[in-house]
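Q: I have 141 residues here and want to know how they pack in 3D. Can you give me a structure?
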Amino acid sequence: MTGILIVAHTPVASAMLGFAEHAFGVLPERVRAVDIPPYEDIKVSFERVLEAAKGVNSGNGILVLTDVMGATPANVASKLDVPGLSAQLGNVIVLTGLNLPMLMRCITHRGEGLEQLAAKALQGGQNGILRLGSKVSEKNE
């Protein structure tokens, strides 16, 4: 089973994990969250993320979900996807733009391989963004 690690600004990661527990009725196995508080030293953040990654690792890869591209959580998480750590962690894929449909898709399809899971996560995240209500006017004003 692929491990899932949520790395986001405080309190987004914990809130996402709380939602998963609420939606599934139990805390999903091998899913962890790491909140990155403002002003925390990046080395400290990385050590916490690395420990959490080791905790979800079952040898079938780790999918890391982060909130915002270019922000500290994504930058810290991207350091897991380097050749030196592959001996400890195996394959790691980091995705940004985390939303609830993406997380739901990840948890429900965890039995699939890492690459397939990453593709399903991206698809779920994109397909989960919809406009409700009336259509946008096509006039150029």
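Q: Anything worth noting?
A: Strands lie at 3-9, 31-36, 62-66, 92-95. The longest strand covers residues 3-9.
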